[in-house]
Design goal:
heterodimer, A: mainly alpha, two-stranded antiparallel sheet, 2 strands, globular, B: mainly alpha
Chain lengths: 494, 640
């Protein structure tokens, strides 16, 4: 059996087991066993993939398989992975695993929460292993819908409003996306839905590409927080429960970048080359604008959400540079941002669970009250502002060096503008660190709060190790994803 | 020379151990662990230096450049970021400087930080800093340097903010990080240009690559200099350094006097072969920026009352001397115009020792009187004899009085300046005299004049003051030992034949004192010291008060650092925060998000507009049905 199928089968089995479980212990057992299995599976897949590659297997995608699903429309359930998808699967597993621990004590309706949570994970895994346009779209939608309930039911603050807004905007994106996918399917002669086959055909007329590239790119771009379609992100993150914020910022937003690269740019290469400049401008705006907005926010989650807009903007920015190094950097940035933001949201959630406020003006001196969480926050902050030794630095530097290879005035200018974000990031991170963690505690009630529990410590430590691992030894990750990137980039050259 | 890896590995190991397990260690163990690892590092550095310089010169008359290890850390397309160790005369010299001062600070802190909360954390950060700084100087390529450059920045941030409950320390640490980060942005862009056009991040691109990059090289080097200016606190990016004095005093000695702040100078020295060949005009900019900074900081230092701030401005001024020395070079040959390079490195070496000593001495004083302000001092020479003598030696060294080390290095700098142009030489001689003046002002106000303690004691005995004053006392041996060692080095370092080890093109250069220049500068310095003696020996004399009154405007402006900080605050707070960030946040909320909300509410309104059509009323349905049918029929008739 193809090992990739397990990525869908395990979550489905988890769903059944959750449905059958009767008490909290059983629910936790199912979640821990399931998410550990998935983590182990991704680790195994990564090692096996690297072994096969170093053994000289140069096929574009490994573990390919296909089953016909609905023959009249050539819809198949086709699967296969390259280095990029392997990296994304690994990321998803880490986040799903740590997210489980971050919602260890979640109440009420624990069972229902984990049901939707696992369904979301199913969608994510399915998306990353699929190579069929329709199957990808289906899994994409599967991942989006649970979000509405997860935020609307278990969220905080204006949760109904945010859940509705998030869902409507992402559904709007899906509508564009569906048009784009149909355009690709019929543009390529309506013979296959398989991505690799469409790319090999390479027969979509340039004019057709001009129409469907923007649709597809925007469709995925909404999820990747592309300016000006990013406003679901601050509200959505702010109201979502911790684990959902982690999964959403950590993995779901990566679906956007991944889709832009794998579908929009890979299948519509000529338009991607010709129209890139429009989106480069938008993403440059995202990068700087998100960072500048973050400076004056007062809610911890808003700060982080705008920071995500900036960092995810950098992902799309790098992809559009269409140089190998920049795109490798983009994938690295997806990994790095996924882990860092998950870490950030986890810690913010833990702080919020204690202080019941996320307003930076109402907290002070947390370093004295909850040293573990405070140190975790500082580490997350330093990783976020691109300190060497953490993943953010590696990703950003790869992007900037790669973007500099695109040698003309326009690309140079936007690269330099995007570079300024490293300073602005430092400003908003250190501002918050200085304000809420340092100083003497002023709020009497806060002085009685306790530090992290074991499950929270475990979540934080796991994520910090991952962030540092990429930061200290980046070569194996960049080797892993390089092949996949090269394959797509070679298609884009004019 | 593979053992040099240990020089990096040990501090890193000690950082990891202290950071992860420090909490469970008693203070003594943590301090001993940190200090012991540093002692080994220092020994290894001295061994490395002995072996390196002992190996002698190659056939071309220079010391060989060694690379005991170099691994490819991150492949970036055609470029590569490597990590490794590069040994050449200046990096070996820096190893000695850093490990020596760092070891002294480690020992000193055992006494200075005794009983502080967070003692283990302090030693962990010191180890982290030492690791990063050593990694910076042995970098084999510009990108590795940038990586460690960022790491020293963050260690500095963590150490300045060590007393994290103190608002001033929090603000200072943030300011230091952000200002240097701002400068690093230019550094990064410089590296990107450099890397792209020379096709390598190493310091020695091929000739053909250089020829191709010649037009953009000055820009790249200029941008790198901006990065260096940020770290080395050149005007107008100097604003973070005086505030950084909020950190513990030994940290100021190590990071903000001896090592990290000279990283900018080291960067320019590292890129010197390229500067001198491809961008001599940028080098001149370096010289002018340095000269202005030297004067500015010296003037400001003359009126500060916080002793650490005086030393901070003095550091800025002295680093500017090193920058000027590099900037006035006109050729790569030390005999023809490259003297400044050697002088700069020499001054870096001697300055690290005597400035480290000054700061550690200041720490001992602050430890004794529990204040940074000069008014709480005075007459301390009777209470702290060792601190007094060592401080005096350092003052004489920085003032450039023979035979102390500062005289020799400063003399070489001035010779290089006169070589460049006479006005430059005179200008720098004047600044050197100012140095002597403000240092002796500081010295007299601390150690001479009326004793604050005695005054308070008299008041207390007379019953006019309820609290008995704290009697100043000499520091413990862990603190005085480093003072004595550094004082000895400051006395003898001038006689090191520095030109034998380091020179601009690597060949041997024998230092000779230029009599005319030396005489002028010593006379200048003596006059300055004489004036300081008259003005400050007995505390603020009537003459001093008179001068102060007449120069009130200038003094006030200088005391407020000529309002440069206020301008920065205005730009960051008022313009960036209030005029850019807030409007953007508003725009995002009201315009972009607002229009989406409008779209949603518009859809709802439209829906409620057509909702009455579905009334469930059969009569109205039939009316609609009939009218629709009639319209259709009419249309059909019309078109048919």
């Amino acid at each position: 059996m193809n090992i990739l199928n397990l990525f869908v089968i395990i979550p489905l089995a988890m769903l059944l087991a959750l449905w059958a479980s009767r008490n909290l212990r059983q629910i936790r057992a199912v979640m821990v066993v399931g998410s550990s299995l998935l983590l182990a599976l991704s680790a195994y897949l990564t090692i096996d993939f690297i072994t096969q590659r170093s053994g000289g297997n140069t096929a574009a995608m490994l573990y390919c398989d296909s089953w016909s699903w609905y023959a009249p429309l050539n819809i198949c359930y086709s699967i296969g992975v390259d280095g990029i998808s392997v990296a994304m699967l690994l990321l998803s597993s880490v986040i799903v695993f740590t997210g489980t621990f971050a919602s260890w004590r979640l109440k009420p309706l624990t069972k229902e929460f984990f049901l939707w949570y696992t369904l979301l994970a199913t969608g994510v895994y399915g998306f990353f292993i699929s190579t069929d346009l329709f199957a990808m779209f289906m899994f994409y939608e599967t991942a989006l819908i649970p979000m509405y309930l997860l935020i609307g039911v278990w969220g905080s603050g204006r949760k109904e409003y945010s859940a509705m807004k998030l869902t409507l905007m992402l559904m709007g994106g899906s509508a564009f996306l569906l048009m784009g996918i149909l355009g690709i399917y019929f543009g390529s002669g309506a013979t296959t839905m398989n991505i690799n086959e469409i790319a090999a055909l390479d027969n979509i007329a340039r004019e057709v590409q001009y129409i469907f590239f923007p649709l597809t790119f925007i469709g995925f771009g909404v999820l990747g927080a592309l300016f000006p379609f990013h406003t679901w992100s601050p509200d959505g993150h702010a109201c979502a429960p911790t684990a959902v914020s982690m999964l959403h910022a950590g993995v779901l937003m990566k679906l956007g970048g991944y889709g832009c690269f794998r579908i929009a740019m890979y299948l519509l290469p000529q338009a991607a080359h010709d129209l890139a400049w429009i989106f480069i401008i938008l993403t440059t705006v995202s990068v700087v604008y998100g960072a500048l907005s973050a400076i004056s926010q007062t809610d911890l989650k808003y700060i982080n959400a705008y920071s995500s807009v900036s960092h995810c903007g950098l992902v799309l920015f790098a992809l559009l540079m269409t140089t190998r190094t920049a795109c490798t950097g983009a994938i690295l940035q997806m990994l790095s941002h996924g882990l860092m933001t998950a870490l950030f949201f986890a810690i913010i959630g833990m702080i919020y669970g204690r202080t019941h406020t996320r307003d930076v003006r109402q907290m002070r001196g947390l370093m004295k009250i909850m040293p573990f969480l405070a140190v975790g926050y500082v580490i997350a902050g330093l990783a976020n502002l691109g300190l060497p030794g953490f993943s953010g630095f590696v990703a950003e530097m790869t992007i900037f060096v790669g973007a500099f290879e695109a040698n003309d005035l326009f690309h140079r200018t936007v690269t330099i503008i995007a570079c300024t974000s490293i300073v602005i990031t430092a400003v908003y991170i250190l501002r918050v660190v200085g304000r809420i963690l340092y100083g003497e505690p002023t709020n009497e009630e806060h002085k009685l709060l306790s530090d992290a529990t074991w499950d929270e410590r475990f979540t934080v430590i796991c994520l910090v190790i991952c962030v540092a691992a990429i930061g200290i030894a980046p070569m194996w990750v960049s080797n892993l994803i390089e092949g996949g990137v090269a394959n797509i980039i070679n298609n884009i050259q004019p | 020379m593979e053992f040099t890896i240990l020089i990096l590995a040990l501090p890193l190991l000690s950082f990891l151990v202290l950071a992860l397990a420090g909490k469970y260690m008693p203070h003594k163990v943590a301090g001993a662990a940190g200090t012991a690892s540093l002692a080994v590092v220092a020994l290894l550095s001295y061994t490395a230096a002995a072996l390196y310089f002992g190996a002698g010169r190659g056939a071309d008359g220079t010391f060989a450049t060694l690379m005991p290890c170099n691994i490819s850390w991150l492949p970036l397309g055609t470029l590569n970021i490597d990590m490794g160790i590069l040994l050449d005369p200046i990096s070996v010299m820096m190893l000695i400087v850093i490990s020596t001062v760092s070891l002294m600070v480690h020992i000193y802190s055992l006494g200075y930080m005794k009983g502080e909360k967070g003692f283990q954390r302090y030693y962990a950060f010191l180890s982290l800093f030492t690791f990063s700084m050593l990694g910076l100087v042995v970098a084999t390529n510009i990108f590795q340097m940038y990586i460690f450059w960022e790491l020293v920045g963050v260690s500095s941030y963590l150490l300045i903010g060590f007393y994290y409950t103190k608002p001033a320390a929090i603000a200072a640490s943030k300011k230091a990080f952000i200002v240097t980060r701002f400068a690093d942005l230019f550094f990064l862009i410089g590296i990107l240009i450099y890397g792209y056009y020379t096709q390598t991040f190493t310091f020695t691109p091929t000739e053909t690559a250089l020829a191709g990059a010649a037009t953009l090289l000055p820009l790249a080097l200029g941008l790198m200099f901006v990065g260096g200016a940020g770290k080395s606190a050149m005007f107008p990016l100097h604003i973070w350094l005086p505030d950084a004095m909020e950190g513990p005093t030994p940290v100021s000695a190590l990071i903000h006097a001896a090592t990290m702040v000279v990283a900018g100078v080291y960067l320019v020295a590292r890129m010197f072969p390229l500067f001198i060949t491809y961008a001599p005009e940028v080098l001149h900019i370096v010289a002018y920026v340095g000269a202005f900074t030297a004067l500015y900081a010296a003037v400001v230092a003359c009126v500060q009352t916080d002793i650490k701030r005086v030393l901070a401005f003095s550091t800025i001024s002295q680093i500017a001397f090193m920058m000027v020395a590099l900037g006035v070079c006109t050729s790569a040959n030390p005999n023809e115009g490259g003297l400044g390079y050697m002088a700069s490195m020499f001054h870096l070496f001697t300055h690290a020792m005597f400035k480290g000593l000054l700061f550690l001495g200041a720490g001992a004083i602050i430890h004794a009187v529990h204040s940074n302000e000069k008014i709480h001092m005075g007459g301390l020479r009777r209470y702290m004899p060792i601190t007094h003598i060592t401080f005096l030696i350092a003052c004489l060294a920085i003032a450039g009085i023979p035979p102390f080390s500062g005289f020799f290095s400063k003399d070489e700098i001035l010779v290089a300046c006169y070589h460049f142009s006479r006005p430059m030489g005179l200008f720098m001689s004047f600044v050197a005299a100012l140095t002597a003046f403000y240092m002796f002002r500081l010295y007299y106000l601390i150690f001479w004049g009326k004793s604050y303690y005695e005054e308070q004691l008299a008041l207390y005995n007379a019953g006019k003051c309820s609290k008995a004053p704290h009697k100043p006392h000499e520091a413990p041996a862990t603190m005085t030992a480093p003072l004595i060692i550094l004082a000895v080095i400051s006395c003898v370092a001038g006689f090191i034949p520095f030109g034998h080890f380091v020179s601009s093109n690597g060949t041997e250069y024998s230092i000779h004192i230029n009599k005319a220049v030396a005489t002028t500068s010593v006379v200048f310095a003596l006059i300055a010291i004489f004036i300081a003696t008259i003005m400050y020996k007995g505390g603020y004399s009537r003459l001093t008060r008179g001068i102060n009154r007449n120069l009130r405007g200038l003094m006030g402006a200088a005391y407020n650092r000529f309002y440069i900080d206020d301008i920065w605050i205005f730009v960051t707070k008022k313009i960036i925060f209030n005029c850019i960030s807030k409007p953007i946040a508003w725009f995002d909320k009201k315009i972009i998000d607002g229009s989406l909300d409008k779209l949603a509410s518009g859809t709802q309104r439209l829906a409620s507009l057509i909702r009455p059509l579905q009334s469930g009323n059969v009569q109205s349905y039939s009316v609609w049905f009939l009218s629709g049918a009639i319209i259709l029929i009419l249309i059909l008739i019309y078109f048919a």
